[in-house]
Specification:
heterodimer; A: mainly alpha; two-stranded antiparallel sheet; 19 helices; 77% helix; globular; B: mainly alpha; 8 helices; 80% helix; 0% strand
């Protein structure tokens, strides 16, 4: 099937244009609506990628791997935009934000979507680097939006650590170019993905090894892998909640995508160091570290930020284990985590607005005072903790079985990490959801539809994965080697 | 074009950058630190134009011009004004003493030289030594960032780190223009961000000492 236009270009261009328009739009209500509209258009265009044959140009590339990412990115971008539309009205009412802040916020939201979609769709490693940098800078601006001392501290830390990470990633990118240049010749060819993969077997393996270390550390900072995670909890806790949802659900994935691309490049060369063990080690450390840290959290958004570190650890661990089954599980887990975690942040955003605080000690008995919201939060947290019948359970189960087949000892450590995290989450959940309710400071007005949409998808994926989706994920898993 | 002399000059300039990074390590006045940074950017501009000349790559002159005008002149001048306005001329608090920092810096330079010369044998000698120096500048920039507590000097550390990246990119023969411009562009954006932050930080705390920010960690109760 052919369309009269190129959907990939649209996926990149629409947010860029929307950012400009939103920067010039007065009135936050109109801005919020335009933001949702632009996100919807981007989502429709990304859905069109499913029916259009992929291809690679000089700048953009569509293959089976990045369609998964782009589609997920635009979907969560859309639901988070509609959540944000109902969320920010309240922030205006209580005077935490001014209309001028919001105009800036909406423009930055689309700028971030532009950066992320460009990073996912780019065929050029230099362009991808620029796009990740752009997405990071726009989220830094949004984390500092409230201008409180805490928010500024979080934004500053995020900015400094993120810049160091991105600098290391650029050095890695330059090294990849140097490895490719003797084989592919000078100029742009030596930076195009499609050419790099085709020629990778002849590159100097030593330089590729060195490059991968820099790239893993650089982009790994953005994925939030321990010990490079220090920015992540603060940025999640102090920014507006829609941004926490997008950070956890999307930006971490974009950085992960960059790591995966370079992993494919490494495996395409027979003489390089295996990238797997490095990723397994970083993933496992992140998982266990975050699981332990979960026990001491007193801020509800900060707690779920640590849970994101834990899950990124699981995903990187599984990709590191490798093989068709573990890769399949890792991809599935990534999608499930994005959907569930952003749903949790939607719920937490409403909770924080009702109670006027993020401290878990001040939030009690949600299921009594707000049955619908409270139970939705309970279900979402149980889903992320890995209980059946949700999708997260299935993907974690697959990771465990495939690891047992290859490295039983690692699997034991991995399961221990999962159980630790489970315990912490359930402990905090019982405190927050049950018991005598605490005082509300505002009524619940916002819509829960984005939350329902996400949870329905996670439930369906846990019960039954459609055949075409399974074979598609399997094809991607093979691509990852 | 790659005769012995042109190689030596490239070598000299890149080595000069490493030396100036060392000088930045022990500056304990903000104005002095800024002046040394401006000198760093100037040497970078010379180094990049030399690469443009010997590689016969005219687009690199643009990068050199950006380094000269933007980094060696405009930014140090702007930071001077900020410092004057904030009245923090005398503050540079180092977490570690100068001697220890210098020792750590020497270790980092040795590390990058050993690493690069061993691992990148297939690259022409030219680019190889350039990369070793570039990595040294990057690591020294990181060191400046972790040994300073003042927000302005952390920013200067970050900018010297970016200079190292540009040195590496200029040394990579034929690397597309897209990257160099984008690097310069990202520095520009970064500075706008930083400028905004500095003023906001000042508004709230009456200091740009980052240690003061630690008091406001969201989790402290």
């Amino acid at each position: 099937m052919t369309l009269p236009f190129d959907p990939v270009t649209g996926v990149v261009i629409v947010p860029a244009v929307a950012a400009l328009v939103l920067a010039l739009t007065p009135g936050y209500r109109l801005g919020a609506r335009l933001n949702v509209g632009a996100s919807l258009l981007t989502f429709l265009l990304s859905a069109a990628l499913l029916v259009v044959p992929g291809g690679a140009g000089d700048y953009l590339l569509v293959d089976e791997l990045n369609i998964v990412f782009i589609l997920l990115n635009s979907f969560v971008g859309l639901t988070a935009a509609s959540f944000s539309a109902s969320y920010i009205a309240h922030e205006i009412e209580i005077k935490r934000l001014t209309p001028a802040n919001l105009r800036f916020y909406h423009a930055m939201y689309q700028m971030m979507m532009f950066g992320m979609n460009l990073a996912l769709a780019s065929n050029n490693i230099g362009l991808m680097w620029v796009a990740v940098e752009l997405a990071t800078l726009s989220t830094v601006m949004m984390v500092g939006l409230y201008r409180t001392p805490e928010a500024l501290e979080a934004a500053w830390k995020y900015f400094i650590l993120g810049s160091v990470g991105i600098a290391l990633a650029l050095f890695g990118t330059i090294l990849v170019y140097l490895a490719a240049q003797p084989v592919l010749g000078e100029g742009r060819d030596a930076m195009l993905w499609t050419r790099l993969i085709a020629g990778a077997a002849d590159f100097d393996p030593m330089i590729l090894n060195l490059a991968f270390v820099f790239l893993l550390l650089g982009y790994g900072t953005k994925v939030g892998l321990a010990p490079l995670h220090a920015w992540l909890p603060d940025a999640h806790a102090e920014g507006p909640t829609p941004i926490s949802a997008v950070l956890s659900g999307l930006l971490l994935n974009v950085a992960l995508y960059a790591v995966l691309r370079f992993k494919i490049l490494m495996t395409a060369n027979p003489d390089t160091l295996a990238p797997g063990p490095l990723m397994v080690a970083m993933g496992l450390v992140s998982l266990i570290f975050a699981a332990l840290m979960l026990y001491r959290r007193r801020d509800i958004k900060r707690m779920f930020a640590y849970s994101s570190i834990e899950h990124m650890g699981i995903i990187v661990f599984a990709f590191g284990i490798g093989g068709p089954l573990a890769n399949f599980a890792a991809l599935l887990h990534m999608v499930m985590h994005s959907l569930t975690k952003s749903a949790i942040f939607f719920a937490v955003g409403h909770v924080a607005q009702i109670k006027g605080t993020q401290k878990t000690a001040m939030i009690r008995g949600l299921t009594h005072s707000h049955p619908v919201l409270g139970w939705a939060l309970v279900i979402a947290v149980l889903a992320i903790a890995g209980l059946p019948p949700f999708g997260v359970f299935m993907s974690e189960f697959l990771v465990v079985t495939s690891t047992f087949a290859q490295a039983p000892l690692l699997a034991l450590l991995f399961v221990a990490g999962l159980l630790l995290a489970f315990g912490a989450l359930v402990m905090r959940l019982t405190e927050v959801a049950f018991g005598a309710p605490t005082q509300d400071v505002a009524p619940l007005k916002a819509s829960l539809k984005p939350l329902y949409a996400h949870m329905a998808l996670v439930l369906v994926a846990g019960l039954y994965l459609p055949g075409p989706m399974v074979s598609w994920f399997q094809a991607v898993a093979r691509l990852l080697g | 074009m790659t005769s012995g002399l042109s190689f030596d000059i490239a070598h000299l300039l890149a080595g000069g950058l490493v030396l100036i990074s060392f000088m930045m390590l022990y500056q304990d006045r903000l104005y002095a630190l800024l002046n040394v940074y401006a000198f760093h950017a100037l040497v970078l501009a010379l180094s990049v134009s030399w690469q443009a000349w010997i590689q016969d790559a005219p687009h690199l002159y643009v990068t050199a011009a950006i380094a000269l005008v933007f980094k060696a002149l405009i930014i140090p001048a702007a930071l001077h004004r900020i410092i004057a306005r904030l009245g923090i001329r005398r503050q540079v608090e180092q977490v570690v003493g100068a001697g220890l920092t210098m020792l750590a810096g020497m270790g980092l330079v040795a590390l990058s030289v050993v690493l690069m010369l061993r691992l990148t044998r297939s690259v022409e000698t030219y680019a190889q030594e350039d990369l070793a120096f570039a990595l040294a500048v990057i690591l020294l920039g990181l060191l400046i960032m972790v040994t300073r507590r003042n927000a302005v000097s952390q920013v200067v550390g970050f900018m010297s780190l970016e200079n190292g990246l540009i040195l590496a990119a200029a040394g990579a023969r034929g690397m597309p223009l897209v990257v160099e411009i984008s690097v310069a562009f990202s520095v520009l954006i970064a500075l706008i961000v930083i400028g905004v932050f500095l003023f906001r930080i000042r508004e709230r705390f009456d200091t740009v000492d980052v240690a003061a920010l630690d008091e406001f960690r969201g989790e402290k109760q």
